[in-house]
Amino acid sequence: MAEKSWHINRRTFLKGTGVALALPFLDCMRTPVHAAKSAGAGLPRRLCAIHFPYGASVPAEDHEDREWGWFPVREGSGFRFTKVLQSLEPLRKYTTVIGGLSHPTGRHIGGHDTGDIFLTGADFSGANFTNTVSFDQIAAAKIGHESRFASLALSSDGGIGMPTRSKTLSFTQSGQPIPGLDKPQQIFDSLFGIDGGTIAEQRRRLKTETSLLDRVMDQSKSLRNKLGKQDQEKYDEYLTSVRDIEQRVARSQDWLDIPKPKVDASELNLEVTQEAPLEYMETMYDLMYLAFRTDSTRAITYMLGAMNGETSNQFSKALGLGSQHELAHGAGKPGGFIRQGTWNICLAENLARFLQKMADTPEGDGSLLDNTTVLFGTSNSRTHNNHNYPLILAGGGNMGFKHNQYLTYEKDGEDVAMSNLLFTMLNRMSITDTGFSDSQGDLSELYV
């Protein structure tokens, strides 16, 4: 007799004695359509992007300190990690190192202005500092409804900063910055804590917020017609922000009756601050892991350090080195590549720990990392050089990505547009097949 098939919803929770525990993704959570597809077809697809400032250690190929450089030796699958990325050796089957990409719009702007456009490819030339939508928000608009949080924007410096010195990687459809969260306890409470008050009290609060937003939108119609053209453009940006708040309120209402997952926080140092940068980075990565593990969100950005960031610029000093800015400017001086490379080793080790935790977490027929693509890198090579971004792409095996390779894309002395990489990530997630920003196509060398 054939085994009887049955299906439970992925939002199902085990309830008892006042505890609600989120179930892991199980085969019986797949719909009949999912079951008819390939092994990884019904699983969540996620993306993560992490940016650090001021470039990386990039000595010339024949430099005596070549082993302290970011980029591996030899291209293709026979590459060899240098000292800088050696911590990724156990993960090479999940990892691709990429060079020769950059945003054409950022190649001739200030060397420290490029963090803002890392995930947007916006044109910041001249006096135009208007950003565009970041690629994580393209994904959030398509799949955000499938998790409690459409996306999660994190930052070591917190907030939004200012144009060309942004403290977040995420930007709305209208190019407005999404504030980066920087306090571990606040992030944990948002993901797993109590939102405040009983369900009935939260419902009343959300109803009041909805009523206020409705009133704002009603009044805006008559006011807009009285404004001049320039003021209308500014006002439209304001209304877009109001609509974003409306959407968040609506999402909160939709998820109000679904308990947040319970996680063990005993090993998390939620009181840590940026004054202990190594422990702080470790906690931020742990929170990102838990957010993905509990399927609380499927899109995360983390600005690990902002250009001119007041706090993150001091992180490297915890290793007895200069500030990241000082390391970047001193790279070409005697011993400079070694000092900057030492800081890059720390960054790579934290990334490796994050990737390994996901690789060790089973999900479906693979791992959490197989269902998550992680982009890690910076928007300078050497300081003030906005070409040849040092990048790492990891994970996403169930989306067809292939790894264990070092690829360089420079053609005839000119970089290839980084938007092609962002488009490839979105395309492999089935988010879009029409392109992103100034992309000309996908990077077929990255997938099977």
What are the main properties of this structure?
alpha/beta, 15 strands, Alkaline Phosphatase, subunit A, two-stranded antiparallel ribbon, single chain, 448 residues, globular
How would you portray this structure in words?
β10 and β11 (366-367) form a beta hairpin. This protein has 2 domains: 42-193 and 262-446, Alkaline Phosphatase, subunit A; 194-259. The chain is α/β, with parallel strands linked by helices. Helix content is 29%, strand content 12%. The two termini are 39 Å apart. Strands 6-9-3-12-13-4-14 form a 7-stranded mixed β-sheet, with helices on both faces.
Tell how many strands the DSSP assignment holds. 15
**CATH architecture designation of the largest domain:** 3-Layer(aba) Sandwich
| Average pLDDT score | 85
What's the CATH class of the largest domain, please? Alpha Beta
Approximately what portion of the residues adopt beta-strand conformation?
A: 5-15%
Question: If you compute it from the alpha carbons, what radius of gyration comes out, rounded to the nearest whole angstrom?
Answer: 22 Å
Q: What are the secondary-structure elements, in order, as H or E?
A: EEHEEEHEEEHHHHEHHEEEEEEH
Q: Ranges with pLDDT <50 over ≥5 residues?
A: 1-40
Overall tally of domains: 2
